[in-house]
Specification:
Order of helices and strands of chain B: EEEHEEHEHHHEHEHEE
Distance between the termini of chain B: 28 Å
Strand content of chain B: 25-35%
Structural class of chain B: alpha/beta
Order of helices and strands of chain A: HHEEEHEEEEHEHEHEEEHHHEHEHHHHH
Largest interface: A-B, 24 and 30 residues
Helix content of chain B: 25-40%
Number of helices of chain B: 7
Distance between the termini of chain A: 29 Å
Number of helices of chain A: 15
Shape of chain B: globular
Oligomer: heterodimer
Radius of gyration of chain B: 18 Å
Number of strands of chain A: 14
Strand order of the largest sheet of chain B: 6-7-8-3-9-10
Shape of chain A: elongated
Largest sheet of chain B: 6 strands, mixed
Number of strands of chain B: 10
Radius of gyration of chain A: 35 Å
């Protein structure tokens, strides 16, 4: 018998028992629908979880200068000045696995507004890209500063929610001026609340400003910071010279003349930054990003094979591990649910097909008497089971899509269409049909026509 | 050459330890175009004989020549092929598919026998046969909407749809009243006389057997005697 004719026979037989056929399919419909809905809702939630974890900085890489050591005494990470804003630029240009990069210049000092003062946890001099890197682009108010502000060392800043509370008493600080080290900064934006980070540090206790402004107007210039052991002292005590708040203030030391400067060149190679923060395109690309940055910095800093690095890179291994284990768990859970529901559906199919074979024993006997070969009977019943499963699969896809749509509309959960789940559902339901339909079909084909005809 | 030749056909059913002989050596011939009745009480073995002749079952011993070919040793599948090409069955209880229209019941054997027929051709051929048995206006009725006689005529149309050489009818009038029985028997006689179809009627009813030209009496798995039927001019 041709495939087409077998299919037509199967459809005709199923139509004769519409009620039973639809009840049988119900098992598969529910199974497939559950799989699809779970995959879509689960996929959506897992994407949302990943986004959340990523916003905690799971994709972030922290590049800090290497350690300085003197006579066997190491000063710890970040005690040398080896990183430059140009390094950040270069990383952005030539590391494809890196999504965004920002140099960071840190100071810790008092901030004054009116009669209030506060020492923020973080005063960061950086670029606008810092916000993308930290996944913090949503501002509560105002605008972020621009690259132009960075070039011009504009005295503008963004403040976190804690600053708003402590300095401005909760009022909108937009357009107000606060003073850092006696430098007046105009507040042009307020950051969204981010809360504490994983070790409990208040991330909203932050002031962000162009790194040039922080470096040259607040922290003093690089020459003053040259002496590493005195660096922190200078940063907090020296009064800014560029803004000339107190005109007439003499330098403690006479200005070196051009000749003096030429005779005693200061061992400064560049403008340094305290650290560079980068973010990989995804958690999976973090190792790739690290490799690319290491290669690039080796090249730029002329570090040869075997020499110690003058920088260190830290990633958020703890977080990325949590992240991947979350998604792994999710996928496995869904797979288990899917397998169970499809198994149940398959057993349902087999059950009904066995009942159907028993019930239609006389029909089978008759078909054999008029010349159906055992193979014809086998194919016919197998076709019925497969058609049932495929119809069930198709309906299950619709019901599953519908459910996930409903969930998204009614509960506002994120969902993601999973083509893989749909393909798998069709394949699995066909497989279930073949596996669970084969035994009943085989049983039907083994019937003795005489006994089948006599069967009451 | 005879259409059917049985040589010492035996059939023994094995029920656990006990052997139950049903056919004890039957030898007979049926020529092309005959209308033969197999008569016997229930348990005589006539149904088993019919099953063997209809290729539904294989004999335990003996030779079965059908159209000059020995077929007692064929496999299940090969017997199915012989059935669909050579034999048509009519049963006592009609055996129509429920919830299936008359025409689709008649089409059913075609889907196994004729590979090259399309749906339309199958429908046309089934329609022709239903016309022949006088059910042109009942083609799309379900079996439950037809009377017993009409159902049996659908069954006859179904048996004939593959152009069989032999029509085997197992108590074809067993479930019918006497008037419809007569109609059905007349139809068999017509088919036999006009189209030369070989028909074997299995019955326990002497009235039915009388419509045959030759009656074979079976008792305890053996041919008891064979009578050429008395000429019955009244149906002519």
């Amino acid at each position: 018998m041709t495939v087409l004719r077998t299919l037509r026979l199967a459809l005709r037989a199923l139509r004769r028992n519409m009620m039973r056929a639809s009840l049988t399919t119900l098992g598969i419909v529910i199974g497939v629908a559950a799989v699809i809905a779970m995959m879509e809702i689960g996929g959506g939630s897992s994407a949302a979880i990943q986004r959340t974890i990523a916003s905690m900085g799971a994709n972030n890489l922290l590049i800090r200068p290497g350690t300085a050591s003197s006579g066997g005494v190491s000063f710890g990470a970040g005690s040398r000045k080896t990183l430059t804003p140009e390094d950040a630029e270069a990383i952005k240009q030539s590391c494809p696995a890196v999504a965004s990069v920002a140099p960071v210049e840190r100071v810790r000092t008092q901030v004054v507004y009116g009669n209030r003062n506060w020492v923020p946890m973080y005063i960061y001099g950086t670029t606008q890209e810092y916000l993308q890197t930290r996944d913090w682009t949503q501002l509560a108010e105002g605008e972020p500063f621009t690259d132009r502000d960075v070039r011009n060392a504009s005295k503008v800043c963004l403040v976190g929610q804690t600053i708003v509370r402590e300095l401005f008493g909760g009022r909108s600080p937009l357009g107000e001026e606060l003073r850092i080290q006696n430098v007046a900064f105009r507040v042009i934006g307020v950051l969204e609340r981010k809360g504490a980070n994983m070790v409990g540090m208040d991330q909203d206790d932050v002031v962000l400003a162009p790194w040039t402004t922080i470096k040259y107007r607040v922290a003093g210039n690089s020459v003053e910071n040259l002496n590493q052991s005195a660096a922190s002292e200078t940063a907090t005590t020296s009064v800014n010279t560029l803004s000339q708040l107190y005109p007439g203030r003499e330098s403690l030391y006479p200005e070196p003349s051009a000749t003096q400067q030429a005779d005693t060149p200061l061992p400064v190679r560049f403008t340094s930054v305290d650290e560079i923060i980068a973010s990989a395109r995804s958690a999976a690309e973090v190792p790739q990003a690290i490799r690319e940055i290491v290669t690039l910095l080796h090249e730029r800093h002329r570090i040869h094979e075997g020499e110690p690095d003058d920088f260190t890179i830290r990633d958020m291994t703890e977080m990325t591990k949590a992240m991947s284990s979350t998604t792994d768990l999710m996928t496995r859970l869904l797979l288990a649910v899917a397998m169970i529901s499809l198994l149940v559906g398959g057993v349902g199919i087999m059950n009904i097909m066995l009942v159907s074979v028993t019930e239609r024993t006389r029909e089978i006997g008759l078909r054999m008497a008029v010349g159906a070969e055992p193979g014809d009977i086998l194919r016919q019943f197998l076709a019925e089971a497969i058609v049932l499963c495929l119809i069930g699969g198709a309906m299950g896809i619709l019901v599953g899509r519908g459910t996930s749509l409903l969930v998204r509309l009614a509960l506002g959960w994120p969902t993601a269409i999973s083509i893989g789940a749909i393909v798998a559902a069709v394949l699995v339901s066909a497989t279930v049909g073949i596996l669970f339909g084969y035994y009943p079909a085989w049983k039907a084909s083994r019937l003795d026509p005489i006994e089948a005809l006599r069967y009451e | 050459m005879d259409l059917i030749e049985l040589r010492d056909i035996r059939k023994i059913y094995r029920l656990g330890e006990v052997d139950l002989p049903v056919l004890n050596g039957i030898s007979m011939h049926v020529a092309r175009g005959e209308l033969v009745a197999l008569m016997g009480a229930s348990g005589s073995g006539k149904s088993t004989l019919m099953h063997v002749m209809g290729c539904l079952d294989h004999p335990s011993a003996g030779e079965y020549w059908l159209e000059g070919r020995e077929i007692s040793g064929l496999s299940e599948t090969e017997r199915a092929r012989v059935r669909k090409q050579t034999i048509g069955f009519v049963f006592q209880n009609f055996n129509l598919l429920a919830r299936t229209s008359a025409i689709e019941n008649v089409m059913m054997p075609l889907s196994y026998a004729v590979e090259h027929f399309g749906e339309a051709q199958m429908r046309q051929r089934a329609g022709e046969l239903l016309k022949r048995v006088g059910l042109a206006d009942r083609m799309h009725h379900l079996p439950s909407q037809l009377s017993g006689g009409q159902q049996q005529r659908v069954a006859i149309a179904r048996a004939l749809v593959n152009n069989p050489q032999i029509l085997l009818a197992d108590e074809p009038t067993g479930n019918l009243d006497s008037r419809t029985s007569e109609e059905i028997l007349r139809m068999f006689q017509d088919l036999n006389r006009r189209e030369g179809l070989t028909i074997i009627l299995v019955t326990h009813d002497p009235e039915v057997a009388r419509s045959a030209r030759r009656v074979i009496h079976i008792k305890d798995g053996l041919i008891e005697d064979e009578t050429a039927a008395e000429p019955e001019g009244e149906t002519a």
